[in-house]
Design brief:
By secondary structure, this protein is α/β, with parallel strands linked by helices. Helix content is about 65%, strand content about 10%. It has a six-stranded antiparallel beta sheet with strand order 2-1-4-5-6-7. Helix 5 packs antiparallel against helix 8 (about 385-485) and helix 10 packs across helix 11. About 30% of the residues are buried. Bound molecules: adenosine-5'-triphosphate. Adenosine-5'-triphosphate (ATP) binds near residues 34 and 63.
């Protein structure tokens, strides 16, 4: 026997602690109306975890607590404890005695205890479901509730039958699995949402990390190229500087020499300065000489003219003398004489001015001219008288003397002239020589300065090269500066690189690569180091979510499989259970109605879901009952008593197929006539072989079936009291 006792304290009308021992197969509880019998049945429901206060005829939790009377004040809590004998381990817990206790407080708080330890309601329900007992179900039939199964919808009826068949545990498992499945799917959805939320950030971070990796590669490349470039450039500049230094030497020296040479020639110029002085002296000397010669020539001409004149006069005198001697006068008109003189003077002057003037030649010329003139005049002259000749002779000797003197003067003047002209020639030659020397020197200076210019142009080229190197140096400095920023201070001392070749094209390609890399690095920009940490963290999170999702999918699949197997199991057990119940139902029906037949039928029910669409696989149970001698099988046509009989037959059938540890029937027998009461009592006896029965009844036949009878009374204080009664007294107590 499963039930041992039930202890009530403060529960409804049981204000005081009341204990009902239920250690016999059939216990009957009897008592007058309103004494509190039904409260005991509800005490069972309460302790077993009933959540519907309505099912315990209350509106709120407080209604279950002793509400007080004129005599006894209200209680603050109600408690009901059921003691089970679990020596046969019908409850899946390792205790021989199991006490389930529920307490309700006025504030509505409920507490559950298992063997004194506080537990959750769920724990109680799970434990009891394993033994096929619960707060509701066909094993506790409250007053007036017998035909509940008849009044229920086919679907609810099916549920009741499933419970009766002990399939509740499967149902619970199924519901639990479905709940878990739902939870799993919710979790999957949440994980999916979390993943989707993280994905854009992850994608962004992935790109950033890839960029960072790319940046790392580029930086390494740049570092190598920079080091190589700087080292190469340094060596190149050093070597070029040396080359330039060397190249400078030759032209510098040459220029130096040439300048010295130039200087020397210029220094010669100081003597040439003297030369210059002498030159001008010479020039002025020549000038003076020329003046002198001109003067001399003038003097000579004058003398010549004088001589000519005097000689003319001599001739005239002579002719006059001759004419006088010959008595022949020569008359020469004066203008003609003047003309003759002018002609002579002209010719003499021409001769005197002729280059290479020769005085002797000149004199000869003068004589010839005069002779000519005289011979010309000869014809014209007449004889002169002798007196005249005498005078003339004196004049002639004077004139001759004068001519002689003049000639002597002229000779000395001519000598002087000759000397002067010789001097002029010499001075002029000297001057020419000076000029020739100047030209040579100028040419030499020009040659040297041209050479200097050539060398200077070479220097300029070298200078240009040097400037190029300077440019390279300042450019290199920029690169070094950049390298210091990029690689640190060590970059200043990059020199451990030994280039194998000095290919400038290669160097320029290195520079281009460096610039390209710098631009690309600039384009990538700065990427925080935390990006990688964040990426790893999010990646890990997503990995974790993936695993979680995998696990959830696995459990989803498992739960689906479990649900399917539970459904299969339920269906299988239900089909066979219904078959068994049908057998028993038919039997009990036959007993109670003395014939006829009854049957439970699985029917498809029209169960519209939210979308107003019929969901498949929804089944319910219909009760088919055909009373003996009646054709009608509809339950609606049955009388109240008949309905009660059908209900009892079904409840008993259900209990027979899967006997619960105990059954509480609250006045299920109320509507039975005497004959049926007897049959009912027989059925109860039969049923008690497998289940303990607690029967609340006013029926004698039923009472007679009980092994133990409790009477409940209620005094003026409104408190229900228990008393153990004998069968013979029971009926009296019941009244
Ligand atoms: P019947 O034979 O007519 O079915 P019964 O013996 O089953 O009667 P119950 O329905 O169990 O009687 O008891 C009803 C009694 O319990 C009433 O007198 C009611 O006042 C009392 N009662 C119910 N709840 C409380 C409560 N919280 N405090 C005090 N008394 C209560």
């Amino acid at each position: 026997m499963a039930l041992k006792t039930i202890k009530l304290s403060g529960f409804k009308s049981f204000a005081k602690k009341s204990v009902i021992d239920i250690d016999t197969p059939i216990v009957a509880i009897v008592g007058p109306n309103g004494s509190g019998k039904s409260n005991t049945a509800e005490a069972f429901r309460f302790a077993l975890g009933e959540q519907s206060i309505k099912n315990m005829r209350g509106k709120k939790g407080e209604d279950l607590i002793w509400g007080g009377s004129d005599v006894v004040p209200r209680a603050n809590r109600a408690s009901v404890a059921i003691h089970f004998d679990n020596s046969r381990k019908f409850l899946d817990i390792d205790y021989d005695e199991v006490i389930i206790e529920r307490v309700v407080h006025r504030d509505g708080l409920n507490e559950y205890f298992l063997n004194g330890s506080k537990v959750r309601l769920k724990d109680i329900i799970t434990l009891l479901a394993g033994a096929n007992i619960g707060a509701s179900g066909h094993h506790i039939i409250s007053q007036g509730e017998a035909d509940r199964i008849l009044n229920s919808t086919p679907k609810t009826r099916k549920l009741m039958l499933e419970e009766a068949l002990g399939l509740r545990v499967y149902q619970y498992k199924k519901i639990e699995s479905e709940r878990k499945l739902q939870k799993t799917r919710e979790n999957m959805r949440e994980v999916g949402i979390k993943q989707r939320e993280l994905m854009p950030r992850l994608k962004f971070l992935k790109r950033e990390v890839e960029k960072k990796e790319q940046k790392q590669i580029l930086e390494n490349e740049l570092k190598n190229k920079l080091i190589e470039f700087i080292a190469r450039e340094r060596i190149f500049i050093k070597e070029r500087e040396f080359e330039i230094q060397e190249a400078l030497k030759e032209p510098t020296q040459k220029i130096e020499h040439l300048k010295k040479e130039y200087e020397q020639i210029l220094n010669q110029d100081s003597s040439s300065e003297k030369q210059e002085n002498s030159k001008s002296e010479l020039l002025s000397h020549i000038e003076i000489l020329k003046n002198d010669t001109s003067l001399l020539k003038e003097k000579i001409q004058k003398i010549i003219a004088d001589v000519g004149k005097k000689e003319g006069m001599i001739e005239v005198i002579k002719s006059s003398n001759e004419r006088a001697s010959q008595n022949k006068d020569i008359f020469v008109p004066l203008p003609k004489v003047k003309k003759i003189f002018d002609s002579i003077l002209q010719k003499l002057s021409n001769m005197a001015h002729k280059k290479g003037f020769d005085i002797l030649e000149f004199i000869a010329g003068v004589e010839t001219e005069i002779t000519n003139i005289l011979s010309e005049l000869e014809d014209n002259f007449s004889n002169t008288d002798k007196a005249k000749n005498t005078t003339n002779t004196k004049q002639l000797s004077l004139l001759t003397q004068e001519i002689e003197d003049l000639r002597n003067l002229m000779t000395s003047l001519s000598d002087e002239l000759q000397n002067k002209e010789n001097e002029i020639i010499k001075a002029t030659e000297k001057l020419h020589n000076f000029e020739k020397t100047d030209e040579k020197r100028e040419l030499e200076l020009l040659r040297i300065s041209t050479k200097i210019k050539d060398q200077e142009s070479i220097l300029k080229d070298i200078e240009y090269e040097r400037r190029k190197i300077d440019d390279l140096k300042s450019s290199l400095d920029e690169y070094i500066q950049y390298a210091v920023e990029f690689l640190g201070k060590e970059a200043r001392y990059i020199d451990d690189f030994k280039p194998e070749e000095k290919n400038r094209e290669y160097q320029s390609s290195l520079r281009q690569d460096i610039e390209r890399l710098r631009i690309r690095l600039d384009q990538i920009g700065h990427i925080d180091d935390e990006i990688i940490d964040e990426f790893n963290a999010i990646n890990e999170k997503i990995e974790f979510l993936n695993n979680e999702l995998e696990d959830l999918k696995k459990s989803d699949k498992k739960l689906e499989e479990l649900i399917i197997s539970l459904e299969d199991e339920l269906e299988k057990r239900f089909t066979s259970g219904i078959k068994d119940i049908n057998n028993e139902f038919n039997n009990f029906f036959n007993v109670l109605f003395r014939g006829g037949n009854a049957e439970l039928k699985l029917v498809k029910v029209s169960n519209k879901n939210q979308d107003e669409q019929e969901s498949e696989n929804e089944f319910g149970v219909e009760i088919m009952a055909r009373l003996p001698r009646k054709k009608v099988s509809s339950l609606d046509a049955l009388s109240g008593g008949e309905r009660a009989l059908v209900s009892i037959a079904l409840i008993f059938a259900m209990s027979a197929v899967n006997p619960p540890p105990f059954i509480i029937l609250d006045e299920t027998d109320a509507a039975l006539d005497e004959a049926n009461s007897k049959r009912y009592a027989d059925m109860v006896r039969e049923l008690s072989k497998k289940s303990q029965l607690i029967l609340i009844t006013h029926n004698r036949e039923t009472m007679s079936a009980a092994h133990n009878l409790y009477g409940i009374t209620m005094g003026a204080d409104g408190i229900s009291r228990l008393l153990s009664v004998k069968l013979e007294d029971a009926y009296a107590v019941a009244k």
